[in-house]
Each structure stands twice: as C-alpha cells, then as structure tokens.
Design brief:
The chain has 327 residues and is α/β, with parallel strands linked by helices. It folds into two domains: 156 residues, Spo0b-associated Gtp-binding Protein, Chain: A (Distorted Sandwich); 166 residues, P-loop containing nucleotide triphosphate hydrolases (Rossmann fold, 3-Layer(aba) Sandwich). It has five helices and 14 strands.
Amino acid sequence: MSNFVDYVKIHCKSGHGGAGSAHLRREKYIPKGGPDGGDGGRGGSIIMKGNSHEWTLLPLRYTRHIKAERGENGGKNQLTGAAGADVYIEVPVGTIAKNEEGEIIGEILEDQQEIVLMKGGKGGLGNEHFKSATNQTPRYAQPGLPGEEGFITFELKLLADVGLVGFPNAGKSTLLSAVSAAKPKIADYAFTTLTPNLGIVEYRNHQSFVMADIPGIIEGAAEGKGLGHRFLRHIERNSILLFLIPADSQEHFEEFKILENELKEYNPELLDKEFILSVSKSDLLDEELKTEIAKEFPENKKPIFFSAVTGEGLMELKDVIWKHLHE
C-alpha cells in the first residue's frame, strides 16, 4: 500500500530532554557555594504543518526516518540548556496523521495549521530546585525525559471540486488531460491510474476549478476488489461527482446504477453529493444513437455527451460543472 503517494508511513522520533545540572558554586571567596545547576532544555517536537501549495504526499514518499534534536543539558550559574529544534513536516490540506494503533492524531484542515504529533521530552530540573532548609547543597538533578518514538502514517483524502467516477477505461484520464495541464498516464488497459491525478481546469475569465481523476472502480470495489477502498476514500472529499459512462458501454444507465451502488455500499453519505452524468467518447456516436442513449436515462438524470478527443461538448460540460459549483 505504501507505494501510493496518498499514503506514507514514517518512523518519527522527538528529541530527549536535556539533563538538569547538579553543579555547586565554587568561587574564590565563597567556600561553600550553594547549588546553581540549570535546567535541561526540552527536546524538539515533531510537528505536522499544512501547506496549501502541496497537492500530494509525494515529497515525503522517500523519507523513512524523521528525528528531532535533543535538548542540551543545563549548566552552572543556573544556565538553562538550549531547546532542541522542532521538525516540521509539511503536508497538503486534508492530510490525516495516525499513530501505530491506527488512531487519528490530527487532521490538517487549513493552510499553516500546526499539529504536534510527538512532543519533545521535558528537560530535567537542575539541583537549585531541590535546595531546602534541611538540604542546603543537593548534589542531584533530574535527567531529561525521553522523547516519543514510533511510526506515523500520513493519509491524504484528495481535495477537489469535481471527482471523476467511472469504470476503468471510461475516459477519465483522457478528459483530465484535455481540460487541464495534468499529464495522467493513459492506456487502454484497466487500472492505468494507480494514483489520483489532480488537474486545474481553466474556465472563462481566468477562473478555474480542480478536477480529480480517481482510479477506476469496478463492481465489488466496496468489498475491496480491484483497487477497492483506497480510492473510494478519495471520492469522499470531492464536492461534485462527475460520472463517466463510455459511449461503447452495453447498458449506459445500468452502468451508472452499478457505480452509484458501489458508492452507496462504501458510504451512503456520498449519495448526498451533487451528481453530473456524462457519456464520454461521444465521437463514436451519431445524433440518432445519442437520442437512443438519452432515452435510457430518467428525465432528471439526462447525461451530457462529450468527446475529449474532438473537444465536442467540453465547454458545455465545464459550464454545467461551474453552475453546480456556484449555485
């Protein structure tokens, strides 16, 4: 699973706290100086930070270990040790971090938001803190507390305005490459798209929206067949779902119903999203065939016909998407 860019597992270790100092003052005219040991510095923390310029977890993909600095030990003259530097892990908005038990530590919902994943160890107290009426010269100090250590899993549920839903080879990658600068892998075998692709679609008057090509799901994806749950997850975060039924499908409306059922099995709330139905590869059809296919669909679910190859219907499709996004 970890070879997909939306799922990264990293071994993290926050810094140990520095030890407190057990120093006793030894000055020329003060033969019996009291304790003056300073506190140890706290260890560095591991912090997840939102970055709206990141779209995937790809930059973290080859990171195996992340370690924060330890705090420095305390010194004489009540000198506190320097704190260890924190380590920031920059992630796209929408990233969830989980601990080894699979529990969610936190989720990044906005740019620059910070969540401490592992706190640095506390620095130990110096011996000056342990001076009392009965113990004028304590010769002990606290050791620093250890940092935390373990694997953290980062998961990204894609944030896009429009998610493309369809069986493998429905033409989703071709559509994305036709309407945006995204360069998804395109081939005529199932599951070409192993990782979701994001494309920024330019609209009229320099406006734009984000479209996500989500890997093809097949009947039974909700039970984990095909590419299964990994990719149904991505659909959760798209505000509109654009269903692509290829022109050369045997049963167009039936294919839509199968796709719809997969989403329902996985998460019934997905059915509350806006749906747009379309028939792709419509350069294969004449007007008569389009009329026949349209008849398969109920009045309130008429599809938009388009061809990403010839450009036919693409502007109409963008208009409909834009209208849905801004109603």
